[in-house]
């Protein structure tokens, strides 16, 4: 049996964007040599809220069959197409408790979350996302529903505001090896810091924007022009609002950028 370098835990709602989330996860797994565990959890109340007591057991049995079938189908399809190890599992219960159990069981290096619907603005307000950011100190990938990573193709990689934690992370060499050159750096600075020296990374192109009301719109435009589909950002474990720098918050980045994010270790 092959020994993989890393473990990825994908938390999926098994809804319409589940395939795009898993596709990006497979792409990441291929780049860093990782195995994938797909996990879905549903609260009993979501299943039984419209059923009376007599029909509840039948409803639960039907849900077991439906979820098993969905997971089996998506896992088999992706495993065969991209030759990557994927294990699928699910649970009924309290969502946060079941997710925490899975984190303890798998001890993943990376957790993958998909964008929540109907709008990305609500993502960091989502209690599950906030829960993961609080409980899991490892790397988190928040995938874009539209701008997905493509397995076996090089990723267009960008880093935000230096992302020094990413550049020093053990995954960085594998990611950079499988990324398109040159590496792109995007920095948002207030007017007093615009003359801050650029990063000394070789073969890196850097774009610097002034912090203002249109900064995120401008950044989003440049990400699109450069076809960036994975943006690396740092989080500061000492700041409750997950501040990336003095002017830019992780919530703002998630809500306004339609690109997959790779959030650093805490």
TrEMBL record:
Pfam families: Usp. This is Universal stress protein family protein. Residues 7-136 form the UspA domain. It comes from the Bacteria. Gene3D superfamilies: HUPs.
């Amino acid at each position: 049996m092959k020994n993989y370098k890393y473990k990825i835990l994908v938390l999926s709602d098994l809804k319409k964007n589940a395939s795009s989330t898993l596709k990006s996860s497979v792409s990441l797994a291929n780049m860093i040599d990782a195995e994938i565990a797909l996990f879905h959890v549903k609260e009993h109340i979501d299943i039984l809220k419209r059923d009376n007591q007599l029909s509840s057991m039948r409803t639960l049995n039907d849900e077991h069959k439906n979820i098993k079938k969905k997971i089996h189908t998506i896992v088999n399809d992706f495993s065969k197409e991209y030759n990557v190890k994927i294990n699928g599992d699910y649970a009924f219960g309290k969502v946060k408790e079941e997710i925490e159990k899975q984190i303890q069981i798998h001890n993943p290096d990376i957790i993958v979350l998909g964008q929540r619907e109907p709008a990305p603005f609500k993502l960091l307000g989502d209690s599950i996302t906030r829960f993961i950011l609080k409980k899991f100190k490892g790397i988190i990938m928040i995938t874009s529903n539209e701008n997905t990573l493509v397995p076996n193709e090089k990723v267009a990689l960008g880093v935000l505001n230096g992302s020094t934690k990413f550049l020093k992370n053990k995954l960085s060499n594998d990611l950079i090896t499988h990324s398109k050159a040159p590496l792109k750096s995007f920095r948002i600075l207030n007017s007093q810091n615009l003359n801050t020296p650029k990063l000394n990374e070789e073969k890196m192109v850097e774009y610097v924007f002034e912090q203002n009301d249109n900064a995120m719109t401008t950044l989003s435009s440049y990400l699109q022009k450069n076809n960036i589909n994975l943006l690396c950002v740092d989080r500061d474990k000492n700041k409750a609002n997950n501040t990336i720098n003095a002017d830019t918050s992780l919530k703002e980045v998630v809500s306004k950028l339609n690109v997959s994010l790779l959030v650093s270790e805490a």
